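Following up on my earlier thread - several people asked me to post the actual chain instead of describing it. Fair enough. Here it is, all 219 residues.
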Amino acid sequence: MTNPVRGYPHPIIAREGWPFLAASILLAALISVLAGGWWSLPFWALAVFVLQFFRDPPRPVPEASAAVLSPADGRIVRIQVVRDPALDRDSLLISVFMNVFNVHSNRAPVDAVVERVEYRPGRFVNADLDKASTENERNALVLRTVSGAQLTVVQVAGLIARRILCYVKPGDALVRGQRYGFIRFGSRVDVYLPTDARPRVAVGDIVRATTTILAELQG
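Reply from S.P.:
Thanks for posting it. Predicted structure:
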């Protein structure tokens, strides 16, 4: 599939972070000039934190056609058959919790077409909690693969994360590993799969966006 949405050449530092990084460096430099090196150390530390938070390195993409790739860096906090609110069906839910030290760009788990994009306002409870999936602000993509399988990928805001960014719309084609969104400052991504999908991860596993295979679709 070709990429009809914004191209992404992997600039190493996510474009969403450029204003924050520039501001933090300018502030640290200003404090260095006005107050001296020791006083500026906390501000340089802040600039380093901003730099690491918005890092966005390129990732190799597994070639397995049935593989569902992780859409985010983080830790697996839930694997359970639940009801998918977007498709109103029983689904295998795999949840990835992202802390402030993870890469926060979100990437497509499969080759698919975006059927629907559904934004829901909500609360901002700790994204590590299961209730965050249904109570927090979230943005869901309903995807359909070439083989006809449907799955839902949900960006979930967290206790600190207050900005969900999504760059795709219905009808857009996504290729696995393609960057489609970003969540600022700690959050969660839920993946709802057909119940016959075979998990390849366990609760507690550390995963990396694109390179980690979460599950395999059947058929």
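Residues 78 and 130 are 8 Å apart (CA to CA). That should answer part of your original question.
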